[in-house]
């Protein structure tokens, strides 16, 4: 029986690292939700560019936030301690507000 149990746990153990290596991230603006599956070590610049291309937006006209903090293109999900199912918010970049 122990040989059977070892045979059953090995595939599960092999799947766990593969699942933990990738994250499903939801990117949402107020109108759209797009889901991405990325590696934990992938720079978020790749995800940000893909979202902007799909939505027809310029990367310089939007900002991405995770838990209220601005995401930099060089950040990775590991650096931000993101978990599977987390989401990034996309907001229109605003310039101005100077004093009179």
Overview of the molecule:
The protein is of the alpha+beta class. It has a single domain, classed as Phosphatidylinositol 3-kinase Catalytic Subunit, Chain A, domain 1 (Ubiquitin-like (UB roll), Roll). It contains two helices and five strands. The chain has a five-stranded mixed sheet with strand order 2-1-5-3-4. The longest helix is centred in the first third of the chain and has 20 residues. The radius of gyration is 19 Å and the shape is globular. This is Ubiquitin-like protein SMT3.
Furnish the topology, listing elements before pairings.
Layout: H1 2-21, E1 22-28, E2 33-39, H2 44-55, E3 62-66, E4 69-70, E5 87-92
Parallel strand pairs: 1-5
Antiparallel strand pairs: 1-2, 3-4, 3-5
Pfam families: Rad60-SLD
Organism: Tolypocladium ophioglossoides (strain CBS 100239) (Snaketongue truffleclub)
Domain Ubiquitin-like: 21-97
Structure summary:
The protein is of the alpha+beta class. It is built from 2 helices and 5 strands.
What is the helix/strand order?
A: HEEHEEE
Number of DSSP strand runs: 5
Radius of gyration: 19 Å
Largest sheet: 5 strands, mixed
What structural class do helix, strand and pairing data support? alpha+beta
CATH architecture grouping: Roll
The residue fraction in helices comes out at: 25-40%
Name some characteristics of this structure.
single chain, 100 residues, alpha+beta, Ubiquitin-like (UB roll), 5-stranded mixed beta sheet, 2 helices, 5 strands
């Amino acid at each position: 029986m122990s040989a059977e149990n070892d045979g059953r746990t090995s595939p599960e153990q092999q799947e766990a690292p593969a699942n933990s290596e990738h994250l499903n991230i939801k990117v949402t603006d107020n109108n759209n939700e797009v889901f991405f599956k990325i590696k934990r070590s992938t720079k978020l610049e790749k995800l940000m560019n893909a979202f902007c291309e799909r939505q027809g937006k310029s990367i310089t006209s939007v900002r991405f936030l995770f838990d209220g903090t601005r995401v930099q293109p060089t950040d990775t999900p590991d650096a931000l301690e993101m978990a599977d199912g987390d989401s990034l918010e996309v907001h229109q970049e605003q310039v101005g507000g100077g004093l009179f």
